[in-house]
Amino acid sequence: MLPSPGFRHLPAVLTDHQRAGLQASINRMIEGFDLAASTAVFSTAADAQTRDRYFLDSARGVSPFLEAGCVDASGALTRPKAECINKIGHALHDHDEAFAALGRHPAVVAALRQVADEPWALMQSMVIMKPPGIGGEVRWHQDGTFLSDQPESVIGFWFALEDATPDNACLQFKVDGHLDPLSERYRVEHADGSNRFEALAPLAWPDADGSETRYAPCKAGDALMFGGRIAHASSTNQSSRSRRAITLHFRRAATDWCRDNWLQRAALPDFLV
Ligand SMILES: O=C(O)CCC(=O)C(=O)O
After folding, report:
1. SS3 14
2. Rounded distance, CA 273 to CA 269, Å?
3. Nearest C-alpha to atom 8 of ligand 1 is from which residue?
4. What beta strand segments (E) does the chain contain?
5. How far apart are the first and last CA of the chain?
6. Could you tell me the distance, in angstroms and rounded to a whole number, from the CA of residue 113 to the centre of ligand 1?
7. Do 17 and 4 touch, CB atoms closer than 8 A?
8. Protein residues with CB under 6 Å of any ligand 1 atom
9. Cα 109–143–91 angle (5° rounding)?
10. What is the number of the ligand 1 atom nearest to the C-alpha of 128?
11. Neighbours of 197 (CB within 10 A)
12. How far is the CA of 171 from the centre of ligand 1 (A)?
């Protein structure tokens, strides 16, 4: 296994034109969503099995996930559509040209090749919407918990589509978190859809006093690159400023993708860079 990297700030990766193209794609996706199906899944009345199936199927599609508290008792949205969406995942690069181009962005490919000069496979793409006033917290986690290969190689990229600061919930990292062991793995038994977290090693998330936390503010167009072990999080967006971002997760193409990862691309062709 290669050493798991910490985080790197890559300034000005996206031009204004590229950002506008990605935003236009996202806005088209949102316009096209019929949220009736999603509100049923995210309403408090939905059962866990329905929710789990929706999540597993999103590995191959372009699926909206709703913010908590956005659906009222009658199943209606309580805010404008775009403000009710927490994230969109998880195979946008297989369905949208702008996202496919982002996966092949020369700065991304060059950064991956610096880690290992060999083909990489893009496994997951996601939009994190973080709408103003409601965008939900992303709790401390290690990406390797949810995306696992052998030997471990997962690397994430996070692209700021808008300025991101501590005020509007920019990403935060655990100081030296890349040196930590992987604390747990999320395993899915695809035959029956059951899932569980397997504890691997004790790990403390950063203290609430902020002494072990490093904020990673970004200008619109900047990117962050980080390995699968470094714990990261973001708070609720309580500001009046939106904080849209895109994440991509790659692995070295030569590794084995774990069969009990929740994310299985099944018949989708490999996306190699
Ligand atoms: O954008 C965020 O706030 C969180 C993203 C994240 O944690 C991830 O992609 O793993």
Report:
1. coil
2. 13
3. 247
4. 7-10, 62-66, 85-90, 120-128, 138-141, 149-150, 155-160, 172-174, 184-189, 194-199, 213-215, 223-227, 232-234, 245-252, 256-257
5. 20
6. 23
7. no
8. 128, 138, 143, 156, 171, 232, 234, 245, 247
9. 60
10. 1
11. 11
12. 7
Domain 7-257 part of CATH 2.60.120.620: yes
Atom 9 in ligand 1: which residue has the minimum CA distance?
247
CA distance 255 to 155: 13
- Could you give the dihedral angle defined by the CA atoms of residues 176, 150, 64 and 36, in that order, rounded to the nearest 10 degrees? -140
Alpha helices, H only, 64-124: 97-103, 106-115
State the distance from the centre of ligand 1 to the C-alpha of 74, rounded, in angstroms.
Answer: 31
| Residue 13 in tokens | 């990766």
- Contacts with 80 (C-beta within 8 Å, 6 or more apart), sequence order: none
Return the domain boundaries, the chain: 7-257
Instruction: Give, for all 273 residues of the chain, the pLDDT tens digit.
Output: 666 778 999 999 999 999 999 999 999 999 999 887 788 787 777 788 999 999 999 999 999 999 988 888 888 899 999 999 999 999 999 999 999 999 999 999 999 999 999 999 999 999 999 999 999 999 999 999 999 999 999 999 999 999 999 999 999 999 999 999 999 999 999 999 999 999 999 999 998 898 999 999 999 999 999 999 999 999 999 999 999 999 999 999 999 999 999 999 999 999 999
* Cα torsion angle, 262, 67, 35, 21, sign: negative
Find out whether 249 and 155 touch, Cβ atoms under 8 Å.
yes
Q: Which numbered atom of ligand 1 lies nearest the CA of 247?
A: 9
Helix, strand, coil percentages for the chain (3-state, nearest 5) = 25, 30, 45
